[in-house]
Specification:
10% of the residues lie in helices and 34% in strands. It has 145 residues and is mainly β. The protein starts with 7 loop residues before the first helix and ends with a strand. 23% of the residues are buried.
C-alpha cells in the first residue's frame, strides 16, 4: 500500500475557494487522488476529511429569484468554458441528450479547472452562458429538461 502525501497548497487553495464562494464543501479529483474540504457548521475554519463517494447534486441557491424548471446553476464563482480546450468541440449543444454525471461545462476558479456534471439527465433546452464568461454562485448556466 503506497503512502498518500497531502498537498498542503492544494488544501489551502480549496479552503480559500470555500471562503470566497460560500460553498459548504468542495472536492477535487485528479487521477486516483481526491481531496475534499468541508466547512463545518459550527466553525469558521475549513476542515479536510477523507474522500467520499457521492452523486452530483444540483447547487442549492437562494429562493430570492425564480429559476426555470431544469435549471443547472453554478456551484461556484469562476470563468465558464464550454469545451475542454481551444479548438475542441463543445461539451454540449442545445438539443443534446445528456445523462446525470456527464460533464457539461468547466468552471475555472483560482486556476483550478472544475468539471461540472449534469445533475440530472434530459435534453439541453438552453445554454445561458458564453464561453469565457464570468459567473457567480447560483447563476443559471443551462436548462436540462
Amino acid at each position: 500500500m503506497g503512502s498518500f502525501k497531502i498537498d498542503a497548497d492544494a488544501v489551502r487553495l480549496l479552503a480559500n475557494l470555500i471562503n470566497e464562494t460560500g460553498l459548504g464543501e468542495i472536492e477535487y479529483e485528479e487521477g486516483d487522488r481526491r481531496i475534499r474540504v468541508a466547512m463545518p457548521q459550527s466553525s469558521a475554519a475549513p476542515i479536510v476529511t477523507a474522500p467520499i463517494a457521492s452523486a452530483a447534486t444540483p447547487a442549492q441557491v437562494p429562493d430570492s429569484e425564480e429559476k426555470p424548471s431544469g435549471a443547472v446553476t453554478s456551484p461556484m464563482v469562476g470563468t465558464v468554458y464550454l469545451q475542454s480546450g481551444p479548438g475542441e468541440p463543445p461539451f454540449i449543444k442545445i438539443g443534446d441528450r445528456v445523462n446525470a454525471g456527464d460533464v457539461v461545462i468547466i468552471i475555472e476558479a483560482m486556476k483550478v479547472m472544475n468539471q461540472i456534471p449534469a445533475p440530472h439527465g434530459g435534453i439541453v433546452r438552453s445554454i445561458d452562458v458564453a464561453d469565457a464568461q464570468a459567473v457567480e454562485f447560483g447563476e443559471v448556466l443551462m436548462v436540462i429538461e
